Amino acid sequence: MSRVTSLTSPNNKQLTRILIVLGIVLLLAIVGFGGYYWYDRYYRPQPKVADATVQQAEQAVASDPQNLEKRLALADAYMTSGRWDDAIARANEVLAIEPEDPEMQQAWLIIGVSNALQGKYSDAIDPLSKLVEARKDGDMPGLDPQLKAAAYYLGDSYLQLNDPKSAVAPLEQAVKWSQTDADSMYKLGLAYAGTGEDRKAADMFYAATTLVPDFLEAYEGLADAYTKLEMPALATYARGMMAYSKKDYAAARDLLLQASQAQTDYAPIFAGLGRTYEGLDDLQAATTAYENALKIDPSNCTATSGLQRVQAMMQQ
Known about the structure:
single chain; about 325 residues; mainly alpha; Serine Threonine Protein Phosphatase 5, Tetratricopeptide repeat; 2 domains; elongated
């Protein structure tokens, strides 16, 4: 039987449908058990949508006032709509009734995040710490979005309170549990910088930029860290990428060329040049820059993807 025939057989079609259904179920589970973390950090709902969500949650509680899960859902709806004091009040009601119920621990997160989002960082520390302490030793903490959210906001709250030393541990946990979260990496870089660990700070800032290539604030932190480490060529590279992030491609090119002459064996400089030349619509120069980066480091993902992108554009 040919490969094409086997892929279109009834059994495989059925398997494909099952996998699709399982994927949808998993997505719904993620949304239902912590989706508000991503929802709140990366998305702001339109007022009408937020109001409709709150109204539905209020109606659900009114029809079944003894149901704590519905009260918790209402607290969550208040939080994502920006009604933080209402969210805190509802979450505290739940904790007053079932303070020891593990299924109600989400209330701690709602209280902590709601306080953090309105600048009450001191009030955010205790509830967020409780959630992290309760769940950090679970079997698969990296699959717990509420735990990751608590660690992130706990660390950020300490940073906002000018206590970078206390911020380090929860942000290290946040990065460990979510290794593709550039925000957590950036915040951990700030914590390291605040405690004088400039080498670690530089590593975290750089890691954040590999995920978000135009992460201006991370490049600013990187430039400062390299300056403190007395690495002027790399500080120039970081300043060049700051210019790139601001779409000032001419300035970025000049700074990155300066850095490349002083540090000839650092692939990210040439990968950054490739991106900059793309911004300048100089595809041939971008190709050369990416190729130079790959000669230094064949595993550089930015250069690999950039070279493929540029070659595809040149063939059009």
